[in-house]
Write a structure and sequence with these properties.
heterodimer; A: mainly alpha; B: 5 helices; flat
Chain lengths: ~60, ~130
């Protein structure tokens, strides 16, 4: 089963750019881009960090296909 | 205690490194009187560019989880392939022990270097950047 996400839409809704989100969660901008285009599935820790930063539940961002 | 300082391969640093490294063929070729031979220049340029590709984008502790995964994947491939080039001379020596071993092993250094450069390039392509970005 694949993990899909709507990180890009939610990030834009919150008005945060890739670079800002990357620095807030402690990863590179390329990693955020790789997650958004589903080239990389983040670890539980990173997924939780992203959801906490965007003030959302992790299930709102990530779900199983 | 000496504190190590990592020199990041920013576009500027790589350009400076490339220009400064031109001194190497200039000095070496002028001392052996082969400054005019362009084939030797090409060899040097290939090695200079190869070494610049081998320049790591940042220290280990600055890589995030995705980058560590990519770096480790390509490192293990480098070891796999380069070990083959080390094993080949050993196999050849076991059949033909009269061949000077040093000759064989010195030749295996060339494909090992090519593997390191090529795989570093592929790793950087997968990382998504060739130069250090803040």
């Amino acid at each position: 089963m694949e993990v899909k996400n709507n990180l890009k839409e939610l990030r834009l809704e919150k008005g945060v750019n890739q670079t800002e989100l990357a620095s807030l969660v402690g990863v590179s901008r390329q990693t955020i881009h790789a997650i958004e285009v589903s080239k990389y599935t983040p670890s539980v820790e990173l997924a939780l960090k992203i959801s906490r930063t965007l003030e959302l539940n992790v299930e709102e961002i990530f779900s199983l296909k | 205690m000496i504190k190590s300082k990592f020199l990041y391969p920013t576009k500027r640093n790589v350009l400076i490194g490339f220009i400064l490294s031109q001194l190497l063929p200039l000095i070496v070729l002028s001392t052996v009187g082969k400054l005019g031979q362009w084939t030797n220049w090409i060899y040097f340029e290939l090695i200079i560019i190869g070494n610049l590709i081998l320049w790591r984008t940042k220290p280990d502790d600055e890589f995030d989880e995705r980058e560590i995964g990519i770096v480790n994947k390509w490192k293990s491939r480098m070891l796999d392939y380069s070990s083959t080039f080390i094993l080949l001379p050993i196999i050849v020596l076991s059949f033909k022990p009269e061949i000077p071993g040093w000759d064989l092993f010195s030749w295996s250094a060339v494909p090992v270097y090519i593997v390191f450069v090529l795989f570093s390039l592929l790793a950087k392509k997968e990382l998504g950047y060739f130069f250090y970005e803040k």
